[in-house]
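User: My instructor asked us to take a sequence, write out its structure as tokens, and then describe one feature of it. I'm not sure where to start. Here is the sequence I was given:
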Amino acid sequence: MRAAGERLAHRIRSAGLKVTGPRLAILEQLERDASHPTAEQVLAVLREDHPSLSLSTVYKTLEAFLGAGLCRRVVGDDARLRVDGVMRPHDHAVCRSCGRIFDVDRALDPPPPTRLPHGLSVIGINIQYDVECSDCGDRSAVARQSSRDHDERNNKEVNHG
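Assistant: Let's start with the prediction itself. The structure tokens for your sequence are:
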């Protein structure tokens, strides 16, 4: 097994899971894919090299990884399970127009509390920003300008009609 495969196998074993071919392939894909993929997207990428891989296996593997701390659940603009293979502390920004999810470096100052009311212990923090990405912002600006141009033309026609 090559060095990357050994590293992935070690991560899986260290998380208390059995190392299998599908788990290695899925974890490698999660580390490579910064788009916060759905199970369907993971399967679509892996299916060519792993034709026997099923959607059920991908879902079960992702749930096992989530439980073992090998990936994080990300809430997108839909109800589908999305995962993040980047385990360094960071937050997410979700574009409310197109649904893309972006990693954002965490900048918490002061640091979060370790305890909350009702005897709750903080074990992690996930901050999600609702945003409009630059692509959607550019499209919105073009649409607004087009609408203003249309309104101006209509006003001229009414005034000169």
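For the description part of your assignment, you could build on this observation: The beta strands are 72-74, 82-84, 90-95, 101-105, 115-116, 120-121, 128-131. Try explaining in your own words what that tells you about the chain.
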